[in-house]
Amino acid sequence: MPMAAPENQDSPTRAPTLRRDWGLQSRGASGKMRAAPNPPTRFPPTLDPLVRSLLAFLLPHRWRPQLAEARRLLAAERPPRLGLVEKLDSWLDSPAWEVRNAAVKLIAHAREHSRYLRLLEKLTDRREAGIVRRNAAEGIARAGIDTDAARTALRRALDDPYWEARAEAARALAALFPPDPRLEHDLLGLLYAHHRNGRRAIAEDNFEVRMAIAQGLGHLGVSPAAFDALLELAHDDAWPVRSQAAVALAHFATRHPELFDRARRSLLEVDRQSDGAVSYFVHRDVLSQALRAIHKGPRAADPDAFRSIYLNPRAGWNHVRR
Amino acid sequence: MLYHLRHLEHLFGPFRLFRYLSFRSIGAVVTAFAVSLLLGPLLIRLLKRYGARDKGRDFGGLNVISKEGTPTMGGLLLLAGLLAASLLWCDPGNQHVRIVLAAALYFGSVGALDDVLKIRSGSNERGLSRHWKYAAQIAFGALVGILFISETFSPYHAEVSRTLTVPIWKHGIYLGWGYMALVVVFMVLASNSVNIADGLDGLAIVPAMLVAAVLGVFAYVVGTESVASLLQFGHLPGSDELTVFCCALIGAGAGFLWFNSHPASIFMGDTGSLALGGVLGTLALLTKQEIVFFVAGGIFVVEAGSSFIQDYIGLKLLGRRLFFRAPYHHSLMHQGASETKVTTRFWILSVIFAAIALATLRLR
Description:
The structure holds 2 protein chains of 2 kinds. Chain A is mainly α. Chain A has 15 helices and 4 strands. Chain A has 2 domains: about 45-175, Alpha Horseshoe (Leucine-rich Repeat Variant); about 180-320, no CATH class. In chain A, helix 5 runs parallel beside helix 7 (about 150-155). Helix content of chain B is about 65%, strand content about 0%. The chains are: A mainly alpha, B mainly alpha. The interface of A and B includes residues 239 and 277 of A.
């Protein structure tokens, strides 16, 4: 199967591309990029996050005003820029993870370019609270940060021990980048484990992550391996994964019309049974939509509708308040 | 009220039936069920007319149907059936019955206030604040605790009142004044656990009915001297009357379930869930079966426990989810199970927990 050509950078349907040099990385005397130094810690590095979160848990009154202010800024459609950077710097180092979380969301919400690097740092800092890492991934997608540094950080986040961060990183990659064999390889690596006998099996036991992988493969996949993985996910035990894989197959098939017949046959064989009446009807509707999209041909399923969710400032963060 | 007809058996022989606990218990079940059934449609219409509808909350689940608009405050139906049957069939002079009726009215009022505030504000998150709810629960717990500790007003002998009964073990743990603290904590846990479990159609009411059934059996055992000595329980005079009350609760619950089964025509709201929790907690204290309550109400323990672990340990302390969602029924639905399947499985587990609790009757 020929590799899909990368999307046109100037296509009007792509998320807005940002200039790579935001001035947020300092340049040393040699002119090479230097990452921002880690903030100093009061306690030993391994204990520091635990002690700080324990203190924040026991003394909530010390950071509630900051959290309230951060949430107020998040609720504003256009947060005021005056003093915003200083506040973000202070909040990003707060001992309370809720304040750091709000700061991460605010960076994306306010499109504060100078602090995008901190967003990437939060995503890859495994000592950081899981929800903060998750929202850092979503923030990167919302802000449309499609640089090499962001791609590297999101690829690293695919190995995150917290399932929501892994899932969000996969979704962010799919939202930001065009079909890419390296990204496809990373997603397949997240999904499968290879045993000594050469056989492979699905290793990702979290259904939310499998859904995100299916979504990602639908948008980023270029090779038959991605298509085969989607076919396998379309027969997953969990009906939400089957539904997502069905949609992803439709998206994949729009880029590879030669796979229409195979995708359609597979979707017709997908198990419409599920664990309950409600999910059965939802699942059946998703399959019907995917089949209709395939029947209509290329461009019927619009992958940019997925990306547009991140561009909508009113869209809720991961559907919950945090 | 009907209890006093036993004095007229010389006029009409069958009136002697009102002496018997079994007869009055069955009467209570049927009466409570009938009252709930008759009042149900009327109450639903009234609640709809006055805009007492559920506002719904987004828990971020994948598999959630919106229940917004369903009439809430169905706890009034529960309380109506319960009060009508209790007043008709229980001995009104019995101190235990008065205490548990007071609990029903008190917690029902607190829950009703919470529901009214939510309805007026148009949001499920703007009812009575958590602190006020805790304060109300602690206040009632303190009152009941004082009752138990006080030598004058306690329904039992001081040594019995201040002892924590441990299932299987014949001798309890004497706590002295510390029993009051236990009562306060127990009431807060009991009322909140039922409140947390009330999340799906029929999810809280059936386990509550089963817990009431278990506590009714224990009330009969500890309240009847011959049975108590046979099964090696301490005799608690007067507590057998609570069997009739428990049967009234079961009947009211069945009548409520008639309308609350999926898809629900009415929700119990905090009016019902706080009242149920408060009543069951008080019943457990009055029958001195504190730990049995948590065995029989294992579903409530799972729901409240998962919620506590997710909120306080996972989210507040560690900054990450430990379960997909909490309480646990949300987690199951988030993974794709339908509402009816989750509810039915929880009912099955409730039956098993109730059976385990009843097994402790003979494991002495």
